[in-house]
């Protein structure tokens, strides 16, 4: 059910044409900047005393093998959140995630968290627990972490909207978020942690994604996945959208992470706490959800249908479902040596 | 560091003997001690421990030079790369391979690095195949057949291979020519020879063999471990390969790994073809079948050939019964970054950075400060030509060597309207 005033849409014959940026997908209608107050009323306050953990953190030098660095990629794509028909709206989702982040911090004083937001037009860092500027203490009804992250998220969504306002409008049926951007940023951050010395926590990436896969990002996402596989960084995913995401299933399978699509989204925090809160070393002792059947079949370039037998161009590796005479991607003529083909083209051009 | 230490030790021993003999006209290795005085570059920190020498800047400038040379050759005219490669690695196990100038012996060093090379090769070229050939006692033998599985080759290398006798380049080339003659026409034929000897004992005219290889479109490259030889140089020039001589173990590893990414392919070398390939599905959990590779009953994991429904254990492979090449889409995706490479970043000096007046002086991707530690001035950094974001030097190296995505460009959304506006 769409919220009043959430999207202005004109149903044209054919795909849904979204012309304006969906406003107030974060909040109940006619209230901006009220995120903190609403959040306060709708969630359980998990207690104070967060500040004292921060002080003790830096005095310990050695890292045992159950210390983790968790990079969380949060999907803030408004085109998904305003149209999602499931029982979870954006600020319930954020409340589950914030309590989960607090859990990670409490499990070990040395755990580090980095939060990166995946928007529709841009991606940015939201929170880094190891930065001095992000250490917040404070009194109040909410723990300081929550209000800090919420404020930064709101600033990010405003920035995302401003960048989107310059565009004339999209005609995509399903608008995807910029997952490849935030994955690349997460991997660069993890490389920086690797460079910092022999003592570092074990990094992993958790992707909280709901938007559908954007096929234009396939090559970039696969590059990021292979780089993560090389650096041995698992990519976990908790998918809150409607249909399974093939890209993220492949990512978890190739890098050795866990892919979960929760059946009951009201209990999202339970899925996060039981599956994703545990560090990498202890995962071998748990029974984690197994991949139900990752589909590695390719889709052909001409019809975008999945095929299980096809033809591959030996020059550019494009996949076709039927035999062609010429490759549409690289222009190579099949069956002839390239020089002959080039001279044929020149001859034809000079004749015409 | 290793290299300079080794040279220093050797140099000091020789210096004592030859000091009396040569008074003037210093050799290059002597000049490195008197003029450069590399020991003065060592520094101690406040607790008396040696500080590592900052070779970050040197590393980055070497990396950029390599990148410039690569991009200069490929950017000129979209040169194709041979993605489906059939490579024969020829290892010279003559008496010269038992020399101890590489510790513990040349043969052990070669075996270690060829194993790393094979893994890297299959990582970058999943659809390609490797075959191993050894030269011993003047005769060339094939150690493993052309195959796509790294484990078989590495297992064959780990066996204790003795070295003896003479080395024969012509016999090796004949064997490789016969092996690579049978492969399909769309594959690129390559030979990599790791040559330690300083001579070759051939039964016939090696120049004829070289011409035969050239006509068969074999691209032969040689990595020498002792000294430069004319016959190797001639072979590489004729066939279009590269000839390098390794100075020490680190340099040898670098030269070997340079052959892992696909080389630029000359258009007439391979005929473009549509290869029929199958994309098998994973077998259902708990299903029992006899796998075609091990001839044993296996439960669960495995793949089913779409044409003949035989079960195979791993991909990529060729189905034993119907001959269909079986791959999965990530294998093809591993090669896409060779086809869509990212542009090298431009280097920004400290002065340009200060003039640019950027809001945040941190690297866009890792958020590390771009200012040199301890001061307020900006260190060297790199910027992307398309998205104009600034990156630190380490991220620059990581992005171009491993990630192949620019985080700045990936974090922007370009609408079709804007894209066509920039093109026109």
Largest sheet, spatial ordering of strands of chain A: 5-4-3-6-7-8
- Secondary-structure class of chain B: alpha/beta
The number of domains of chain B is 3
Low-confidence stretches of chain A: 1-20, 27-61
CATH class category name of the largest domain in chain B: Alpha Beta
What does this 3D model show about the protein?
The complex is a heterodimer of chains A (352) and B (424). With 352 residues, chain A is of the alpha/beta class. In chain A, 35% of the residues lie in helices and 14% in strands. Chain A is globular, with a radius of gyration of 24 Å. The N terminus of chain A is likely disordered. With 424 residues, chain B is of the alpha/beta class. Chain B folds into three domains: 178 residues, Rossmann fold, CATH 3.40.50; 63 residues, no CATH class; 70 residues, Zinc/RING finger domain, C3HC4 (zinc finger) (Herpes Virus-1), CATH 3.30.40.10. In chain B, strands 5-4-3-6-7-8 form a six-stranded mixed β-sheet, sandwiched between helices. A three-stranded mixed β-sheet of chain B has the order 9-16-15, with no helix packed on it. A three-stranded antiparallel β-sheet of chain B has the order 10-13-14, with no helix packed on it. In chain B, a hairpin with a 6-residue loop joins strand 13 and strand 14. Chain B is globular, with a radius of gyration of 26 Å. Chain B starts with a helix and ends with a helix. At the A-B interface, strand 5, helix 6, helix 7, strand 11 and strand 12 of A face strand 9, strand 10, helix 10, helix 11 and helix 13 of B. Chain B: Keywords: DNA damage, DNA repair, Metal-binding, Nucleus, Transcription, Transcription regulation, Zinc, Zinc-finger. Chain B: Belongs to the GTF2H2 family. Chain B: It is found in: Nucleus.
């Amino acid at each position: 059910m769409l919220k009043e005033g959430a999207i202005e849409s004109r149903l044209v014959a054919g795909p849904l044409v979204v012309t304006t940026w969906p406003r107030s997908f974060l909040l109940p209608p006619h209230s901006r900047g009220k995120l903190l107050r609403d959040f306060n009323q709708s969630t359980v306050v998990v207690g104070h005393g967060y500040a004292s953990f921060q002080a003790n953190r830096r005095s310990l030098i050695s890292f045992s093998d159950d210390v983790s660095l968790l990079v969380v990629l949060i999907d803030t794509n408004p085109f998904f959140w305003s149209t999602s028909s499931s029982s979870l709206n954006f600020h319930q989702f954020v409340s589950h995630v914030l309590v989960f982040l607090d859990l990670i911090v409490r499990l070990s004083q040395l755990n580090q968290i980095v939060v990166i937001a995946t928007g529709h037009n841009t991606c940015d860092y939201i929170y880094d627990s190891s930065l001095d500027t992000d250490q917040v203490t404070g009194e109040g009804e909410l723990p300081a972490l929550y209000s800090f992250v919420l404020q930064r998220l709101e600033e990010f969504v405003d920035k995302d909207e401003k960048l989107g306002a310059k565009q004339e409008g999209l005609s995509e049926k399903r608008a995807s978020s910029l997952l490849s951007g935030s994955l690349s940023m997460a991997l660069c951050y993890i490389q920086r942690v690797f460079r910092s010395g022999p003592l570092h926590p074990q990094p992993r990436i958790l992707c909280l994604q709901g938007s559908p896969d954007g096929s234009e990002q396939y090559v970039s996402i696969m590059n990021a996945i292979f780089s993560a596989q090389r650096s041995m960084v698992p990519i976990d995913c908790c998918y809150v959208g409607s249909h399974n995401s093939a890209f993220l299933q492949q990512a978890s399978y190739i890098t050795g992470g866990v892919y979960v699509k929760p059946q009951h989204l009201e209990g999202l925090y339970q899925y996060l706490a039981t599956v994703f809160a545990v560090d990498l070393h202890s995962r071998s002792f748990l029974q984690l959800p197994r991949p139900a059947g990752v589909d590695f079949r390719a889709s052909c370039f001409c019809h975008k249908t999945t095929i299980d037998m096809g033809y591959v161009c030996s020059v550019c590796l494009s996949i076709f479902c039927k035999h062609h005479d010429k490759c549409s991607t690289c222009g190579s003529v099949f069956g002839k040596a390239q020089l002959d083909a080039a001279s044929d083209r020149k001859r034809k051009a000079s004749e015409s | 560091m290793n290299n300079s230490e080794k040279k220093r030790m050797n140099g000091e021993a020789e210096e004592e003997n030859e000091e009396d003999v040569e008074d003037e006209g210093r050799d290059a290795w002597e000049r490195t001690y008197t003029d450069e005085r590399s020991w003065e570059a060592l520094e101690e920190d406040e607790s008396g421990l040696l500080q590592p020498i900052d070779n970050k800047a040197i590393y980055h400038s070497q990396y950029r030079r390599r990148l410039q040379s690569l991009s200069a050759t490929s950017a000129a005219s979209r040169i194709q790369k041979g993605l489906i490669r059939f490579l024969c690695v020829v290892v010279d196990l003559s008496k010269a391979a038992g020399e101890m100038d590489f510790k513990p012996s040349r043969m052990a060093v070669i075996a270690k690095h060829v194993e790393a090379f094979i893994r890297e090769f299959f990582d970058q070229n999943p659809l390609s195949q490797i075959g191993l050939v050894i030269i011993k006692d003047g005769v060339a033998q094939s150690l493993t057949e052309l195959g796509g599985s790294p484990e078989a080759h590495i297992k064959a290398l780990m066996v204790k291979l003795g070295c003896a006798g003479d080395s024969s380049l012509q016999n090796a080339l004949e064997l490789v020519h016969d092996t690579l003659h049978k492969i399909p026409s769309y594959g690129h034929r390559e030979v990599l020879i790791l040559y330690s000897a300083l001579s070759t004992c051939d039964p016939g005219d090696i120049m004829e063999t070289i011409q035969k290889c050239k006509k068969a479109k074999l691209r032969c490259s040689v990595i020498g471990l002792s000294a430069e030889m004319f016959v190797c140089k001639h072979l590489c020039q004729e066939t279009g390969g590269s000839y390098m001589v390794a100075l020490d173990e680190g340099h040898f590893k670098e030269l070997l790994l340079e052959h892992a990414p696909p080389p630029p392919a000359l258009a007439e070398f391979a005929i473009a073809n549509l290869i029929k390939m199958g994309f098998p599905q994973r077998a259902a959990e708990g299903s029992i079948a006899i796998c075609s590779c091990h001839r044993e009953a296996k439960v669960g994991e495995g793949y089913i050939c779409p044409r003949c429904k035989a079960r195979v254990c791993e991909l990529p492979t060729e189905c034993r019964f119907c001959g269909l090449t079986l791959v999965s889409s990530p294998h093809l995706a591993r090669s896409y970054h060779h086809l869509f490479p990212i542009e090298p970043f431009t280097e920004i000096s400290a002065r340009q950075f200060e003039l640019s007046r950027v809001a945040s002086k941190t690297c866009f991707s890792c958020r590390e400060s771009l200012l040199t530690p301890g001061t307020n001035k900006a260190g060297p950094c790199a910027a992307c030509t398309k998205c104009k974001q600034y990156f630190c030097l380490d991220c620059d190296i990581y992005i171009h060597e491993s990630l192949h995505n620019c985080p700045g460009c990936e974090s922007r959304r370009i609408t079709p309207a804007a894209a066509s506006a920039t093109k026109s």
